[in-house]
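Q: Here's a chain of 245 amino acids. Please give me its 3D structure as tokens.
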Amino acid sequence: MPAAIEVTGVSKSFRIPHEQRTYFKEYFLHPFRRTSYERNDALDDVSFTIERGEFFGIFGPNGSGKSTLLRILAGIYVPDAGRVRITGRLSPFIELGVGFNFELNARDNIRVNCALAGLTTNEVAARFDEILAFAELERFVDQKLKNYSSGMLMRLAYSIAIQIPFDILLLDEVLAVGDQSFQEKCFATFEEFKQDGKTVILVTHDLPLLSRFADRVLLLEHGVVSGVGPFDELVDAYRESALVG
């Protein structure tokens, strides 16, 4: 049986401009002025495998390439080099508000997002009340999303993500904007996913959370894999590097 995710030799770089011209007048007065760029190697030859049904954590210092890696797994970014193989249906929950139309209310956004994920009209109707109930947004279902707080958006987005049939769930730090009680509801779903054999990839700075749920973790530093294995084996190395940094 193939692994849920196989990442082989993945690298990704970005160009950072040293000069940013924001006004049309600047282009008009200096049409031949060149902007110099600096290369930022976000990921360098990253390789790892995630087995089916595994709760896999990704952690490391700020700027280590964690979010870039997650976006590559989600298909948002294309790697410059290397290969990503995903076996199963993916549900990404990595950026707050992505996929939402803020001029529409929650009712319409639920319908649109579920339809885009491949659910039929009957399937959306069957899941609609459960999505709202889990998000605790019944009172605000007809309110436009542009008037939602970040916490309300997170509740709605997570509730939709877990109602869409998936084999692999990608989660970023976005859960951190929720209040404690809703976070605990999310953590309860983690337990359910583990029991159901779902694969979960979580990027977080919350070390106790990784200790609680992760079967294995990947420590990413400066775009390079520093280690893959049980959390207890890697956390000391991470804390030492954080102190040095």
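Q: Can you summarize the key feature?
A: The CA atoms of residues 226 and 237 lie 9 Å apart.
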